[in-house]
Amino acid sequence: MQKQTGKSGGSGGGTPAKRGRPFGSTTGSGAAAAAAAAAVGDPGAPAALVGPSLQVLSALSDQNNKRIVLALQSGLKSEILWALNALTVLSFKEKDDFRRDTTPLAKVPGLLDALLQVIDEWRDIAMPKDHLKPPRVRTLGANTTLSGFGQENMEKVYSDTGTTSNDQSKTEESSVTKKRSASFWFDEDGLFNNDDEGRAERQQCAIAVSNIIRNFSFMPENETIMVQHRHCLETVFQCLEDQNREDDELVTNMLETLVNLAPVLDLRIFSSSKPSFIKMTEKGAVHAIMGMLSSSVKPWHCAAAELIGRLIINPDNESFLLPVIPQIYKRLVDLLSMPAYDAQAAAVSALYNVAEVNMDCRLKLASERWAVDRLLKIVKTPHPVPEVCRKTSMILESLVSEPQNRMHLLVHENTFAEILTTEGKYSDTFARILYELTARPSNKGTSGQAIWGNIN
Q1: Is the keyword Plastid assigned to this protein (predicted)?
Q2: pLDDT in tens, 330-354
Q3: What secondary structure does DSSP assign to 261-296, as a single string?
Q4: CA–CA separation, 28 vs 30, rounded Å?
Q5: E strand or H helix at 371, and its extent?
Q6: Cβ atoms 280, 327 nearer than 8 A
């Protein structure tokens, strides 16, 4: 089975096509509409944009809702492929795309559960054996000569061939027989385990499903359904938790899904009364996010930083993230020192939201080693994206608003003055910072009393 959600080639005149997007989707609204029409079998579509045809009817979302769900649940290879190809097209939607066949999840009852079933089936066979339940110990008849369970023959070696004892010598001379112990009958894999080809097909189906779920998360009308579906969130966080064993593309799709849903996501769903399919708690979800943040893969730790910044906007999530704030700050400050501009932007975006939570967060950030130095460096360099520099200056202004932080920031007074005179875009912000540090009467009295005695 060929992978249906791989990277597609775009035309030479536009930006490269995104992963899982139909051919020609990023070359403009006209080309996107033409490519979409070609994908759903529109006879009026230009032949130049027709790639591998998916043969999806234009009215499929209205006429075949039940068939899509049943095809995913059937376990038949051809049916699953047809459903995944159809959903890949139906779940795709660009901002300037006016296709009529993009389908929200609310129109297809049971679709999200059917998609998650495909991922669950893959994870059931992909999980290492040492994580499975150990085999049951058979004690019935253990002390008898014939137990009835074949225990007396465990040490014997059986041949897979059907040769008789009279012809055994001839067989050994002509060919090599495959031999195994009788204990293979009690192997956890059983007689109907998947071969390598079957495992690869299931893995590709799971990746295709993750791409479809990711596409659905871009649609605002799907946010409420997905963040209230506990099985969906449990599956997503479990894939992040198993980042070292799962497929990279599947983990990336799940992480991007979370980033899209983060503004409306409430972690308290893991302690709600809704039925749970996977043992996942709020603490486990935060641990999975921290694992992605500490990853050395740039797209993963950048997305995790953005995810934390969006999650903490919701006051209900603060209590779960505040215990790991020191680790978050340490990692975000490390990202600020990276030469990659996107890593710096992700770290600044997260710090901008986290620093506004409460006073304790601002105190911890100011006391973090190299935090203020690296924030100032982003403004002085400067970062190529003006919005990142603006947020950085706002972070510094929020830090100086706390009296306990002023001694940490007075060390950089000359740097503040230099930026004030050289960077016109942010002069107002740094003027307010310098005023907070040096010009207010309360500051003069405090510093004068500490160094020269009370000179007021």
Answers
A1: no
A2: 999 999 999 999 999 999 999 999 9
A3: HGGG--GGGGGSSS--SS---HHHHHHHHHHHHT-S
A4: 6
A5: helix 371-380
A6: no
Scanning 192-314, the segments in alpha helix (DSSP H) are: 196-217, 220-227, 230-241, 248-261, 282-293, 298-311
10 Å Cβ neighbour count for 383?
19
CB 37 within 8 A of CB 20: no
Question: Is the previous residue joined to 384 through a cis bond, with omega within 30 degrees of 0?
Answer: no
Looking up tokens 């090599």 gives 176
The one-letter amino acid at 338: M
8 A C-beta contact, residue 270 and residue 285: yes
Task: Write out the E strands in 47-164.
Answer: 157-159
Burial class (CB in 10 A: 0-12, 13-18, 19+), 272: exposed
Query: What is the model's pLDDT at position 423?
Result: 77
Contact 331, 370 (CB under 8 A): no
18, 211 contact by CB (below 8 A): no
Rounded to whole angstroms, how far apart are CA atoms 274 and 282? 14
Which residues lie below 8 Å from residue 411, measured CB to CB, with a gap of 6+? none
Per the listing, tokens 């938790």 go with 241
DSSP 77-93: HHHHHHHHHHHHHHT--
Residue, of 95 and 250, whose pLDDT is higher? 250
Residue 412 scores a pLDDT above 80: yes
Domain residue limits, the chain: 62-92+103-127+196-269
